[in-house]
DNA sequence: TTGATTGTTAAGCATAGACTTAAGTATCAT
DNA sequence: ATGATACTTAAGTCTATGCTTAACAATCAA
């Protein structure tokens, strides 16, 4: 329940806010790829793609390793999971609240019935 | 499996990238709040808080309504769910891949055993 | 060794983001 | 009617983001 490491979440959500970067993540979810493979679907310069890649790497969403002249990229699932976990924990909060509200309304209804019978 | 509405995702993830806004979401997950209640934990001017609130509202993560002079804010769970859904669908991709890889490795191992026996 | 691949670095530009302060505008209570 | 409350609007500043082009490495293949 504590406020976990917020700083990674900043850069993770920031990274996910761009459609190009989400596209790269989607591609890498299906398997590793080189920089030029990653760049291929996008209508922008290679340096621009590499800059997006750096954002993904800095946020921890992607890891890369260079062999020869080709840099191979793959997703780091843990980072995506931590984003999902944060959302999930919010969901837990509001669902708990809805449950309490529901219980309260049921209680009200029960009282109303009693009063009805009493009349 | 199609690329759903990407534009809302841009602004949803963008909104979540800021710790102040995540704090507001966390607060609102526990129940509705007025603007000044929302502002209270943060060490910044009210206009700054309202600007964050506008980002949340534009992204669809929060809805507000004004009664008298107080604006009451509450979360719109659907928007958060759509962010979670996107992440979940990436996860489905990489898990499918891991499953295929696993099956392949088992197959390799089976062949290796056969060869061993043959010798 | 030359030429083609595959990236990398640097610089610049234009727009968007996260604040601030100062000065309003409604509402509500007395 | 007056003052306090609860925002709102406007304007400005300073930094970060998302690109671009132009040049520069470092492989690899012939």
List keywords for this structure.
5 helices; DNA-binding; Arc Repressor Mutant, subunit A; 119 residues; mainly alpha; homodimer; rod-shaped
General description of the model:
The structure is a homodimer of 119-residue chains. Chain A has helices at 6-16, 19-29, 35-39, 46-58, 77-118, and strands at 33-34, 62-67, 70-75. By secondary structure, chain A is mainly α. The first copy, chain A, has a domain at 6-79: Arc Repressor Mutant, subunit A. In chain A, strands 1-3-2 form a three-stranded antiparallel beta sheet. In chain A, helix 1 runs antiparallel to helix 4 and helix 1 packs across helix 5 (77-118). Chain A is rod-shaped. Chains A and B meet through helix 1, helix 2 and helix 5 of A and helix 1, helix 2 and helix 5 of B.
How is this structure best summarized?
The structure is a homodimer of 119-residue chains. Chain A is mainly alpha-helical and 119 residues long.
Show the helix and strand layout.
Two copies of one chain form a homodimer.
Chain A: H1 6-16, H2 19-29, E1 33-34, H3 35-39, H4 46-58, E2 62-67, E3 70-75, H5 77-118
Antiparallel strand pairs in A: 1-3, 2-3
Helix pairs in contact in A: 1-4, 1-5
The structure holds a DNA duplex (30 and 30 nucleotides).
């Amino acid at each position: 329940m504590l406020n976990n490491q917020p700083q990674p979440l900043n850069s993770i959500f920031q990274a996910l806010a761009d459609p190009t970067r989400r596209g790269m993540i989607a591609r890498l979810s299906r398997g590793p790829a080189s920089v030029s493979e990653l760049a291929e679907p996008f209508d922008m310069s290679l340096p621009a793609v590499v800059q997006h890649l750096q954002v993904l790497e800095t946020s921890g969403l992607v890891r890369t390793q260079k062999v020869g002249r080709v840099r191979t990229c793959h997703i780091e699932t843990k980072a995506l999971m931590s984003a999902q976990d944060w959302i999930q924990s919010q969901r837990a909060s509001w669902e708990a609240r809805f449950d309490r509200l529901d219980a309260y309304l049921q209680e009200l209804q029960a009282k109303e019935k009693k009063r009805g019978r009493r009349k």
